[in-house]
């Protein structure tokens, strides 16, 4: 179903489901580890929210990453600018780029120009952090839904190898011609993809299309499917993300 979906339903589905998820993961998170911290270099995690959401609303995510390896991690939760969104009848809302239809499928049309503008803004955030002294290998770009699509685009088109990109319930926001712009260093950036099989906002098939797309560009990726999970983030997914980032953090020694 294309833009005939009522925009109010689209907003509520994305924002309300995410709010429920945050509450769930906070309540179910175990006690912090008492393990002695290892000397770790500075790291940076950039989290990009979904359509209609905000950065501050997603900040509770960082409280779940209690492992000692994250003691020197800087988190950033920027908010998207308010823009008209086509699939929501042109309604103004926080949006990284225009979305032409909801639900998103593997064959949904894409506004590549708008995506590339958003990518430039994300690259500026990454550049600033690297200039401040963070090793690019300790920079991780993560995102949910629209933010996941932008996270994917941003790491693919960044000229350097980064620590990794994590996509939650996202999709491929551009066509295969973009792959020609992926540098050899960018191809070394690992991608981790998480998607609920019961997602009716960004269809599971849209997520499944990710790994084959990345293989064409010569990138390695891992895809994890979650039966029964809708358009939301689970505690299990975030635990997996924590372990994934920990395994890639570079030591200061």
From TrEMBL:
Pfam families assigned to the protein according to its UniProt record, in alphabetical order: Abhydrolase_2
Membrane-crossing segments per the record: 6-27
Keywords, sorted A to Z: Fatty acid metabolism, Hydrolase, Lipid metabolism, Membrane, Transmembrane, Transmembrane helix
Domain named Phospholipase/carboxylesterase/thioesterase: residues: 37-246
Top-rank taxon: Eukaryota
InterPro entries per record: AB_hydrolase_fold, LYPA1-2/EST-like, PLipase/COase/thioEstase
Name of this protein: Carboxylesterase
